[in-house]
Write a structure and sequence with these properties.
Elements: H1 2-22, H2 26-47, H3 68-92, H4 102-107, H5 114-132, H6 144-154, H7 157-170, E1 175-181, E2 187-193, E3 208-214, H8 221-224, H9 228-235, H10 241-250
Antiparallel strand pairs: 1-2, 1-3
The structure holds manganese (II) ion (MN).
Length: 251
């Protein structure tokens, strides 16, 4: 949505400048621009309403914590399917994505199908997941306001990591573990099944997901098989704490 609004403004500005040069009235141009945009948006939304952003690093960038083949299959097959199936669901259920953001869709997910729930969650969760990680850089933990909040709400960074790891290990079957900021601005840890997340109105735990780990077997099984705990332990080494800290401060 933000990008679309930005593009609209850019388009109107660019068109306005051209019109001044050509001596065309601003009103006529404004009307022309609106029609062009409506046509463009309608066309665009009929093809692919939801697309994956490019992975912000190479498939092998997170090795040895996550191997290149796991990343490639996870991103180009599993996550691609969530984007495609979400696109199908919004068309089948007549969601006007020019008017409702993905976050708002999740907040009203009880109004839609199981297909919408699974794939809206799947798309949101994975688009976030890729950004939470980066190649090991030497910066090994949170800092600033996020660190202060973690220490306040969990006692210490170590206590937070232990509690988060336990939630990720003990999620039965497929799902995610989350660091969540509650509506009362308190950090807490919880896990959700399948592709649910704490933005969903049907979720048992609600709030803003600051950080999350995918504990579906597809996220780790090629390298770790049944040893989910080893995957979780290695995952702490590939977190992009700059991004996570910014995400927390932007809430
Ligand atoms: Mn996944």
């Amino acid at each position: 949505m933000k990008n679309k609004n930005f593009n609209r403004r850019q388009f109107v500005i660019a068109t306005g400048k051209a019109s001044i040069a050509a001596g065309i009235s601003a009103t006529a141009i404004s009307s022309f621009a609106k029609n062009q945009l409506a046509s463009h948006e309608q066309h665009h939304s009929q093809i692919t309403p939801y697309k994956q952003e490019p992975l912000p690093y190479a498939y092998n960038a997170l090795e040895p914590a996550i191997d290149a083949l796991t990343m490639e299959i996870h991103y180009s097959k599993h996550a691609a399917a969530y984007a495609k199936n979400l696109s199908e669901a919004v068309q089948a259920e007549n969601v006007d994505i020019a008017k409702i953001s993905l976050e708002d869709l999740l907040g009203n997910i009880s109004k839609y199908s199981v297909k919408m729930r699974n794939n809206a969650g799947g798309h949101y969760n994975h688009e976030l997941f890729w950004k939470l990680m980066s190649a090991p850089s030497g910066t090994s933990g949170p800092s600033g306001k996020l660190l202060t909040a973690i220490q306040k709400d969990f006692g210490s960074l170590e206590a937070f990591k232990a509690q988060f790891s336990d939630a990720a290990k003990s999620r039965f079957g497929s799902g995610w573990a989350w660091l969540i900021l509650s509506h009362e601005k308190k950090l807490f840890i919880a896990s959700t099944p399948n592709q649910d997340n704490p933005l969903m109105n049907i979720s048992d735990v609600k709030g803003f997901p600051v950080l999350g780990i995918d504990v579906w077997e597809h996220a780790y099984y090629l390298k770790y098989q049944n040893k989910r705990a080893d995957y979780i332990a290695a995952w702490w080494n590939i977190l992009n704490w700059n991004f996570i800290g910014q995400r927390f401060e932007q809430i």
